[in-house]
């Protein structure tokens, strides 16, 4: 069976590439593994296809009808990062690519990287600049809404205020001792 594992991450989530070129998908693992499996889900053909397994020594085992020239896996020395290189791209390479590791007789998959292969890459949209004004402008600073995990989050201020309260309470006995010591010294000085 397959299990989703959030500790397997791919980079990036979407790739748009041109035919006849090459691309690369990075897989970061949460810890060292003996190797990594790569699969592709083809929406068009509705098949989940095994592409290649690469062990930590760089030895690769390919799936049926998978070209060794097209797919290559490069592992890092840390054994926690593996790169899938895909060359000679064509539209049949469209799909979602998953890296996977085997653990306790289960295959763990992450979210996958969606690859789209097109004949012509779209041109970046042109951005238009507003005409520059010669008169001075007043700057207005907008306050962004703070997210729930921001500086005003209860996860931040509750422990912080509790720590301050504990610190203040711990100072009370010290202040009391200093007051008693001061009073003793004052009495000694006046008795002499």
TrEMBL record:
Residues 12-110 form the Ig-like domain. SMART domains: IG (SM00409). GO terms for cellular component: cell surface; membrane. This is CD8B protein. It is a single-pass type I membrane protein. Its main location: membrane. The keyword Glycoprotein applies. Pfam families: V-set (PF07686).
């Amino acid at each position: 069976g397959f299990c989703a594992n959030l500790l397997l991450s791919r980079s990036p989530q979407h790739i748009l590439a041109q035919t006849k070129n090459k691309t690369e998908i990075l897989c970061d693992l949460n810890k060292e593994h003996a190797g990594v499996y790569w699969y592709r889900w083809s929406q068009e053909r509705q098949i989940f296809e095994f592409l290649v397994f690469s062990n930590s020594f760089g030895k690769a085992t390919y799936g049926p009808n998978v070209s060794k020239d097209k797919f290559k896996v490069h592992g890092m020395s840390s054994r926690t990062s593996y790169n899938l290189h895909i060359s000679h791209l064509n539209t049949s390479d469209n799909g979602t690519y998953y890296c996977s590791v085997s653990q306790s007789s289960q295959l763990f998959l992450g979210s996958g990287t969606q690859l789209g292969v097109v004949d012509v890459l779209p041109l970046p949209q042109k951005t238009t600049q507003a005409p520059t004004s010669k008169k001075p402008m007043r700057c207005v600073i907008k306050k962004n809404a703070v997210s729930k995990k921001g500086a005003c989050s209860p996860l931040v201020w509750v422990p912080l205020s509790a720590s301050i309260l504990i610190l203040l309470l711990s100072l009370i006995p010290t202040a009391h001792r200093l007051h008693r010591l001061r009073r003793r010294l004052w009495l000694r000085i006046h008795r002499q």
